Amino acid sequence: MLHSLKVKFIAALILLVSGLIGLSTWWMLTLHRGHMLRATQDKVRAIADSIDRGIYVAMREGRSHDVQRILEETGRDPDIERVIVFDSRGRILKASVAELVGRTLDRDRLSRYLDQPESTVVSLRENGRLIQSVVKKIRNVPECFPCHGSQATVNGILHVDMSFRQTEEQIAEMERSALWTVLLTTAVMATGGAILMVRLVERPVAGLVRAMARVEGGDLETRANLRTRDELGRLADSFNTMVEKLKAARAEIEGYHQQRLARAERLATLGEMAASLAHEVKNPLAGIAGAVQVMADELPEADPRKEIMHEILTQVHRLDRTVQDLLAFARPGKPDVEPCDIHQVLDRVLILLAENPEAKQVRVVRAYQPGLPRVHGDGKQLRQVFLNLILNAVQAMPGGGQVTLQTGVHDGSGEDREDPSPHGPMVEVTVTDTGPGIPPNILKDLFTPFVTTKRRGTGLGLSVSRRIVEDHEGWITAESPPGQGATFRVFLPLEPSSHRTGERVS
């Protein structure tokens, strides 16, 4: 639940909205606080100026007793803490609180007041309260000479302390209102975001997930029904298109599978018939070959019938090889696997091939990778595979050419076979010729039994070779670019110890 998209979205929305509103509220409160502080400073300065003018008028008109009254009336303001007038020695001359008259200020405070310029407003805290203080010097002007004489420059110092109690209460009220505004706005935004998230995202996504689950279970008739034109609607359309393609692909695979099963049944029946036929033909062929050989041995060398006998023996041997291919195709033997050096297998095939008259016009190039790992296989059966491939290459170049044998290590991926799953590292053997190549219509069915490009071939050599390679848990492929010869690739599994430890043999 905590990892759902809805929870993450709402949490992100709350953090974003709270952060933005909190930042803007803090900024507004800071501005209002500054404005209120400046307003309070202006107020206390105006009060000090008003008291100064009142004292000046009262003293000029000879009403000095009114100064005390002015200070007491001013002190009745709830925001005014105290108002005092003291001389340069710190003795309080007049005060809004009568009990303060006659007292003397301490020297530190007096020196601080005397050092101030003509009029100064300062902020300070006393007993945990913020106080705005105005210190204003009362100058000795000519109108004051009759009473104060002309020697002194300052007749006294006016000091007004104004409390910030109401201002602080207003600021606190603003902060509480701002906090509730943030909380309510965040709650409304979170609720609205959750509702929108459920209606616009969660329900459509849940529908898509249910449809995907049904498709995963094999129901390819399922479709996502989202009637929106946004990204989720396009996603649903893409999902439906994908399911349609999956349905078509599955129908195609099932059809192909049925064809393969039918073909396998036909091949099994054909194999049984071929095996029976081969057994029926093999023994009479052996008898015919023996009788013809005896008759040929009894004829004089100059007898023209002797050449006919040799031709009969040649044809009988060809039929015998065909019978052997039929038996190998119909009832292949299980490979006797053991660690095998593929380079030795290829070299032995080339030794056998050296006696073939057709191979004398073909140049063989060995492009062996040094230190190639051993393969896990039957050397005898693998020699049959490579003998078939190299013989086919030689016979495809009656006028001469080149056959290249190349070896290496393959990563085991199988994009070029029916089962594309990876099989781990494999040894790859490539047989390439410079012949005319294989026609495209033949290439796709090249490994099908009885398909051949040779006039006198049986079409079983490549089928037998493919079966042997597959019995070794490998695969074989063929490619033939137009006019560039043919290339056969054989992939064989490594010896288990070589696969684990990376053993190399020379």
Structure explained in plain terms:
The protein is α+β, with helices and mostly antiparallel strands and 506 residues long. The chain has three domains: 5-170, PAS domain (Beta-Lactamase, 2-Layer Sandwich), CATH 3.30.450; 221-331, Helix Hairpins, CATH 1.10.287; 335-501, Heat Shock Protein 90 (2-Layer Sandwich), CATH 3.30.565.10. 54% of the residues lie in helices and 16% in strands. It has helices at 5-60, 65-75, 107-114, 145-148, 165-216, 231-298, 305-330, 342-353, 379-395, 440-443, 461-471, 496-501; strands at residues 80-86, 92-95, 119-126, 129-139, 154-163, 338-340, 362-367, 375-377, 401-410, 426-433, 475-479, 487-493. The protein has a five-stranded antiparallel sheet with strand order 2-1-5-4-3. It is rod-shaped and about 180 Å long.
Q: What's the short story on this structure?
A:
This protein has 12 helices and 12 strands. With 506 residues, it is α+β, with helices and mostly antiparallel strands. It has 3 domains: 5-170, PAS domain (Beta-Lactamase, 2-Layer Sandwich); 221-331, Helix Hairpins (Orthogonal Bundle); 335-501, Histidine kinase-like ATPase, C-terminal domain (Heat Shock Protein 90, 2-Layer Sandwich), CATH 3.30.565.
